[in-house]
Structure formats: structure tokens, C-alpha cells
Amino acid sequence: MSHRPRRLAPLATLGVVVALLLSACGETAQGGDTDPDQVDSVEAPELGACRVLSPEDVQQASNATRTVDCTERHTAQTYAVGELPEEFEDVARDDRSLGEFAYRTCSAKFLKFLGADESMVMRTVVSWAWFRPSEKAWEDGARWYRCDVVGGGEQSDRFVNLPTTAEGLLLGRPQDRWMVCVAGPSVTGAPRTPCHEPHDWRAVSTIKLGEPEEPYPGDRVVEVKTRDFCSTAVGAWLNYPVNYDFAYTWFHEAEWEAGNRRSVCWAKTPD
Predict the structure, then answer these.
(1) Where are the domains of the chain?
(2) Which of 196, 54, 184 is nearest to 124 (CA)?
(3) pTM for the complete prediction?
């Protein structure tokens, strides 16, 4: 029996944009089609609001893109808004602990909003981004956070349109248009595409590698456990063919420290 693994270098995200979450994002823009009333607002954003955001927009620390009616075309929807805990009252706006809080908070609320578990959201084309007040608003005492579901991830060339509401989007058996695939000879470095479009690889499973309180086991351990699990999991998903290709995406210590405990298994789909 021949199983041909394609080893994949660690990627920053499949639904979890860790690198952006923990970094001090730039303040060079506030998003396209800016609403002046939102730019330096101290008031918390509107829950449920929809916007047309781009991959460039979600790389910014703050966002003041105009809202649109959710029945119109949009690529983002605000699913969580709240005041930061008192412990952040005197921290710097780019403090790392703020990103860690956002990761925990937005991740948990993201699962609940979409109606999915961790494995499912890591295999979908939708992800989330978070925003904080502008520098001026922060200096004026604003301490809110905003979590948006967006129709794409870090490796997306563009975001896809979302339905009128993304709430419950992944309940039951999600449509292929929301699941993540790749068109190309390898998953490494290739843009993600919805699975209803032509593709060569599909994310079919994930493996949980540890509990929240456990330390990072090391790159070698993570890769080997991921490879061995994905070989079996992909074979089962393909109904145990004699020959098949599989690939796997594993993550480094930075993602582990941010909260991610899963790797992703990919199946080479039939021609």
C-alpha cells in the first residue's frame, strides 16, 4: 500500500490568524470607504453590523469602514463587541496581552456564532479578525474590542461575500462554498479556494495535539504526530484506496502559545 505524504511547512492560519492577532498592527489606514464618525470613536461599535472588508483591511489594528445593510453585498459581519477587562485600563494599545485576550475571546465567540467546533472552523474559508480603538480614541479612554467574521483568511487573495447573517453558517453539514480547498500541485503557498470551485486538495480533518495547559512539545513531535494521524485519517476519508496522496499543515510554538492545539490534514482529491 502506497501512501505519499506531502510535508507542509507550518502556516500561520486556517481560520486562526495568530500572527496578526499578536502583532502590533499598523495604523496607516482605517479601511476602505472610511466613515469619519467611526475613525476616533470612543463608543463601542455596533453589534451585527456588516461591512465590505478586504484582506488589507484586516491587517490594520483599527477599522472605520462604513457599514452597509446586511442584505447588500458584504464580506464581514461584527459578531462580538465588548469592553475590555479592567486589567487593560493602563496597558499600551499594542500590548501583547491584549492580542492574547482577543484570541481567546473572539475564538470562543466565533465557534458559538457559526455553530461549529474547532476542527470545523479550521477547515472553512471564513475566519475572523479583531479591531481595537484608534490611537486617539485609546488615549481618550476607549477600551472596547470588535470581532468580525470575514469571508476569507490570511492567504486569501480576496474575501467572498457572506450571507445576510453568518450566524449558524456551519451548523449541520456545511455547503462546499464555505469549506477550504486548494487548486495546485501543493498546498504550500497556494491561495485557498472554496471547495465548490475546481480544486486539487481538500482539508478533511484535524488532530488535537494537546490541552490548553500543556507546554509546546516541540516541532519534531508535532510534525510526526500530525503526519501519522493524517495518513490514517485521509485514508479513511478516501475509503481506504490502495494508493493516495495526503498532506498536513502543522504549527509552530507561537501559534501554540496563542492557543492553537490542532494540525490540519489534506486529501488529494481524485482527478
Answers:
(1) 18-150, 176-268
(2) 196
(3) 0.83
